[in-house]
């Protein structure tokens, strides 16, 4: 299973991130490519405790849905709602600025997460609740993969 815990998986996902352009067309959803980059940064900020997020977890999400999302051999489908704090269209997500700067911000946050400089297990996922450090690293890869596929990367 791919994860930000593995250097080659982290390098692969960052290569894919760098292939996205502001004009990249979306395959589903409402975000532009630039909004998606900002959404990824916001999501990693939630993961490291740098951005508060509302708790929308429930027993089914903390157990069954979390397990399916992280470990079932299925790709995440398009159209999954996000938390309001990182919603790009009408929510509280960080607005796009300079594209290259925003991509560099995601790269930096991936570095923080992947190198283990922050104890991710201290943070709660907005839907999945408490997660192990390893589960957060798996989530980070899958979340990026989902949105990069959204833009053909």
Give structural notes:
With 153 residues, the protein is mainly alpha-helical. It has a single domain, classed as Four Helix Bundle (Hemerythrin (Met), subunit A) (Up-down Bundle), CATH 1.20.120. The protein has 5 helices and 2 strands; from the N terminus they run ααααββα. Strands 1-2 form a two-stranded antiparallel sheet. The longest helix has 18 residues. It is globular and about 40 Å long.
- Strand proportion, as a percent range, falls in under 5%
| Arithmetic mean of pLDDT | 95
Strand order of the largest sheet: 1-2
Q: Tell me the CATH architecture.
A: Up-down Bundle
CATH topology value? Four Helix Bundle (Hemerythrin (Met), subunit A)
The separation of the N and C termini measures 19 Å
Cα shape: globular
Residues in helices, as a percent range: 40-55%
Name the CATH class: Mainly Alpha
Number of strands: 2
Number of domains: 1
Describe the largest sheet.
2 strands, antiparallel
Radius of gyration: 14 Å
Low-confidence stretches: none
Topology:
Layout: H1 7-18, H2 33-47, H3 59-71, H4 99-115, E1 124-125, E2 129-130, H5 133-150
Defining traits:
single chain, 153 residues, mainly alpha, Four Helix Bundle (Hemerythrin (Met), subunit A), two-stranded antiparallel sheet, 3% strand
């Amino acid at each position: 299973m791919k994860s930000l815990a593995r250097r080659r998986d982290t390098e692969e996902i960052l290569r894919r991130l760098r292939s996205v352009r502001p004009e990249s067309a979306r395959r589903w959803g409402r975000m532009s490519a630039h909004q998606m980059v900002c959404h990824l940064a916001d999501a990693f900020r939630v993961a490291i405790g740098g951005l508060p997020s509302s708790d929308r977890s429930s027993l089914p999400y903390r157990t069954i849905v979390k397990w399916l999302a992280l470990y079932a051999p299925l790709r995440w489908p398009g159209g999954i709602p996000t938390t309001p704090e990182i919603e790009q269209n009408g929510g509280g997500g960080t607005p796009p600025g300079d594209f290259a700067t925003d991509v560099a911000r995601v790269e930096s946050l991936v570095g923080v997460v992947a190198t283990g400089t922050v104890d991710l297990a201290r943070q709660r996922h907005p839907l999945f609740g408490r997660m192990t450090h390893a589960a957060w690293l798996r989530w980070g890869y899958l979340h990026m993969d989902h949105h990069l596929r959204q833009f053909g990367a």
